[in-house]
Amino acid sequence: MLMRTDPFRELDRIAQQLTGVTGTWSRPSAxxxxxxxxGEEYVIALDLPGVAKDAIDIDVxxxxxxxxxxxxxxxxxxxxxxxxSERPLGVFSRQLVLADTLDTERxxxxxxxxxxxxxxxIAERAKPRKIAIGGESEHKQIxx
Length: 144
What we know:
Elements: E1 2-4, H1 9-19, E2 29-30, E3 33-38, E4 41-47, E5 56-61, E6 64-71, E7 90-98, E8 108-112, E9 115-121
Parallel strand pairs: 2-7
Antiparallel strand pairs: 1-7, 3-4, 4-9, 5-6, 6-7, 8-9
């Protein structure tokens, strides 16, 4: 139902882990995600722990879904001395190409416990349907 748009995203993620460089608006870091079908919906779950709800931006244009988020530093007073900082800060982004079989007009989003969950209904035109077969009596020819 979706396609990955950047084949080098995993290499970027590994390089960021090794160098400690976090995402910027021009070169955001990837965010981990799961995608699966549940009944008549397609579900995308993105991990965004420590990100405020108002720092998440979700856009859909045609079939391109874009999620961007920014994890900002916690405000500290002047007398705080950081001993360890492993939680990445910066900008995170994910772009997904959605199939035409999804109803992008009815996407819903929930954010709970650091997980952004998007639910995209399967479009009516993509659902299987039965085709009725007419009987012979319905197709009689009139002879003149």
